[in-house]
Amino acid sequence: MNNNTSQADNAPMVSVEHAGLRFGDFDALQDINLEVYQGQTLALLGHNGAGKSSLIKLILGLIKPTSGQLTIRGSSVAGQSVNLGYLPEDVSFYDKLTGKEVLSYFAALKGIHPQRVQQLIGEFELEYAQHRQLKTYSKGMKQRLGVAQAILSNPDILLLDEPTVGLDPQASQFLYEKIESLKQQGCAVIVCTHELAIVEQHLDSALLLAGGRRVGFGSLDDLRQASGLKTQIKLANFAGLVQGDTYLQSLSHQQALWVGADERKAVVEYLVQQKNCTDFNVIEPSLAVMYHHFMQQQAPNVAAVNGELTMASKGWLQSLQSLFTSTARQSSL
């Protein structure tokens, strides 16, 4: 996370104001607002069909909003030359080209010096495979090549659609280390992902979409405040500290203290000063927990046709059920 970027000192790299996107009678996006600043990462989150891909297409300039506006560095996207990098969800290159040939091809299209190609091959640890055809590459190798292609021009804005899908933890960590390096150089990064636990460690802000609408936006602290979810405080000597203490008993549930954001500081001070307790663990609501909370608040527009759910409704429910199951497994560990 980048704590050095002052929003007051610069205009947002990407600004979306009351943007809507309509296809016939279908609203893909409704009244979307967001800002991404230089050197920051925005996580774009939502169920299948939430509108994430549509929003990415707006930012890429592939389609225009039917209402509202989108600006890059304070200017309209239309007709503006933007140094932008993009990694689609399904990276697809010509399998009979080598890794070096792929990067050289895109470098030629963008007017990038060949030296940059060799530099990225080294940075992404692909030297040993640079002369091999892509049909011999693993998923992780193709993904690294895809990210290298996306950052060839040292972009001011980088959009990544599911960059870690199908990757092992080591490969995922490698990609996010590269993203962090780009942020330090001032790049604004937008990541569309379902890997909440991974992106939580690297985001500066998150936009939560459901049914084409914004249901949450801000930093992790902003989202925690908006959700009203409580912080968990686990005590090493729970029974001994809580017994006979009506104040702590009022906060107790399932062998832990549960406190709101506005009372956490007071509770911690009480534990340290009044109970002489320093052996405790403060557990904030995770991004996954907050995501579930915001999504549960949204009633899906479930339309029945001959007793069956529409495809959009199925996508919503299946995505939410899958994420619930994943979090339940993590909670039981």
UniProtKB/TrEMBL annotation:
InterPro entries linked: AAA+_ATPase, ABC_transporter-like_ATP-bd, ABC_transporter-like_CS, ABC_Transporter_VariousFunc, P-loop_NTPase
UniProt keywords, alphabetically: ATP-binding, Nucleotide-binding, Transport
Entries under SUPFAM superfamilies matching the protein: P-loop containing nucleoside triphosphate hydrolases
A GO MF label: ATP binding
Record protein name field: ABC transporter ATP-binding protein
A Pfam family it matches: ABC_tran
Domain of life: Bacteria
Organism lineage: Bacteria, Pseudomonadati, Pseudomonadota, Gammaproteobacteria, Alteromonadales
ABC transporter domain mapped to chain residues: 14-236
Organism: Shewanella youngdeokensis
CDD domains linked: ABC_DR_subfamily_A
